[in-house]
Structures
1.
Amino acid sequence: MIKYEDLYNEVKNILSEKRFIHTEGVIERAIEYGEIYGEDKETVKLVALSHDIAKEIPKQERVNYAKDIGVELDEIEKTNLELIHSKVGAKICKDKYGFSDEMVNAVKYHTTGRSNMSMLEKIIYLADATEKNRNYCSQEFVVEMAKKNIDEAMFFILKWTIGNLLEQNKKIHIDTIIAYNYYNKK
Amino acid sequence: MIKYEDLYNEVKNILSEKRFIHTEGVIERAIEYGEIYGEDKETVKLVALSHDIAKEIPKQERVNYAKDIGVELDEIEKTNLELIHSKVGAKICKDKYGFSDEMVNAVKYHTTGRSNMSMLEKIIYLADATEKNRNYCSQEFVVEMAKKNIDEAMFFILKWTIGNLLEQNKKIHIDTIIAYNYYNKK
């Protein structure tokens, strides 16, 4: 598996300045959460660093690129091109950087979530949503929730995300609803 | 198949007064929509009359009742007992009243919706949501939307329903999201 120091400059070169600032925010937050929940620091850093590795592939190339590297897309992903970057990124992390399956899944599900997520998956999902440069979800009470009760924070962010997609009349990935229902303890 | 006149008193006896007032509102609205979209009036009336036939089976009996008559429930239906009445009602309409498959499906999907609904399914779904005794969705602009562009009205009600479930922290049935994505032309 690739080392964090070796991947750092590669990711910095691939991503725009704005995206890399976001990525650094995710790394910082993921380290905080990882320490609380006892996850391996190097693993957490590597996944956080590379979670958006495929985010800036031009939209018109995404579907073809996914096809080229053997990533299957579902109906929603074919029309909501935003979602593709997670699956494509996961494939790159597996093939090029030698990530373990758990690390690959943390990249793969960082946008939609899914039911019964591993601790690493939850840490990356929440770090992405709550990093300091985010407008709403970086608020102190959300970060504190993530530190105290990670499943409750998952529910909060999933609910917030679905509400946001609805407001914008955007399609909603089934995995996000499955995750929302799973973390909904009502 | 049972005749409307014969079923009318049976449904009136089964349902509470409040529920039967709702049912009469659904029949009225379904006839309006059915005329516009060229559906058979007797069929529309029969389905509207019986759509909530299983709604007042006591909650604690619903799961067992479903099992007894051979209705399979998914994970969400097992915890959200509200949803069970549509599947159970559909089975009663098939076995006891001799409804056709299309009529059975209009009862079955009147709560969640699904993708690619038949005209009859959409008429019952929308009549249920927009009958005159409903608080919000009976507003004139929603009824007019249903009369002018039935797929647009489907999207409006599905979106409104998901928002409502979210607000109440309730679980969301996957069929509702599949329907929302399907009727979302964005």
2.
Amino acid sequence: MRALKPEDITQSVIQSFADTPDPRLREIMVSLVRHLHAFAQEVKLTEAEWFAGIDFLTRCGHITDDKRQEFILLSDTLGLSMLTVALNQNKPAGCTEATVFGPFHVDGAPQVERGGDVAQGARGTPCLVRGRVLGLKGEPIAGALLDVWQSDEEGLYDVQRPDLGHAQARAVVQADEHGRFDFRSIVAVPYAIPHDGPVGQMLKATARHPWRPAHLHFMVQAPGYETLITHVFRADSAYLDSDAVFGVRPSLVCDWRQQDDGSYLLEFDFVLNPQAA
Amino acid sequence: MRALKPEDITQSVIQSFADTPDPRLREIMVSLVRHLHAFAQEVKLTEAEWFAGIDFLTRCGHITDDKRQEFILLSDTLGLSMLTVALNQNKPAGCTEATVFGPFHVDGAPQVERGGDVAQGARGTPCLVRGRVLGLKGEPIAGALLDVWQSDEEGLYDVQRPDLGHAQARAVVQADEHGRFDFRSIVAVPYAIPHDGPVGQMLKATARHPWRPAHLHFMVQAPGYETLITHVFRADSAYLDSDAVFGVRPSLVCDWRQQDDGSYLLEFDFVLNPQAA
């Protein structure tokens, strides 16, 4: 422990985790320290840069509250969130792919009946959304629950409007006995992730933009199946090739078809993976 | 950017930093992303573990204020602080080694005259501290300023006593024209770093203790010389071989000699590195 060389310091820290009772926690801590130290050594981190990192994390912590999650934004914009999703997808071909959860989901959204209005006053061009929840053989999954959430035409989620006082463009809908769901909402538009904080400063300093392509969030749950967290993206959206959070998967990009009356129709079927027995 | 495999996601994120104007920032971000992703991929990070990490950082941020710095504690206990210090030491042999800054330094500590009392009521066994500030050829550095700070006999720094209202065991002292300094304080004792927060939970979960061996902090500054941030450790202290923050360097361990009256005497000379021309 009376370490002298950088390599000796790293070895001392790794050794300090030797008695960790949980082998998985030990594996994670040792790998984390090895990669963290390799990073610092590779760039020969200066003390001023180290302090800038401490200050950055401190500001992320202080801007984070029950409505704003800067650490998830940071993970999203560094691609760690999407990487974690990808590392945990071992699903058979044919299942709907997952993507990032994002920081705007809220537990306990209001339940909306079939055909009902999810927008609840959120401004935007009307959009009808319908589809089915299916198993791998095309069998309907009766009664599946779909959490849906999206931003309004100004690119804001309801939780970003502190004076709103009720859920907008956010609901739980339920598939019927044939696995079918449909609801009314508004058409999704591209929006900028919150960039008035430390993560926004990082994006600006690295000449990156904060925009996400237009998408609608889904979390689909049914007994006996793995929960699916995903988006459906608009094929005609800007930023599909430069999503600030790296969430686009080609299989999730879909035509949202404009109707004669100017409104939109989105049709999308979800295929869930059965839970391991 | 419409990435599919984990490797493609990592490549997309690295690519997103291509236009960073500052080449040093680009180098740091690319290296950080590469190592962060390599860590996640190596341990095959699960989504629950990812969320535990987000939650851990959030709690670090929320416990951090102007008196408590959990991110520095985290960096210290993961050895990143000491590694950064070591990476930035390119000093000739003979210079006093640096060690971690720690989270308890305060700018603007009261100035104490030569021979004066730094303790200011902090409880502990009296200790006289004296020595010289020198250049590499043994030349005295007249008027060098020494920030000194330490915990009291209960292992607490003054800033950890919210009701105190004044500085204790913390001062700025100045070397005379011969580079000599001396002041009265209390003898350092081992203490536990703050472990009632997320970092303490990490230490507990990994069966590590939160203790640091007895030491006195110094920051030594003089025009024309590199600022030295270091400690002097007690040779008879517990935890020299398991410092919770990996800060011990053999050259900084020194006999603090007990005198006939029970008080202690610490004698230590600091050798500063001249600033590059």
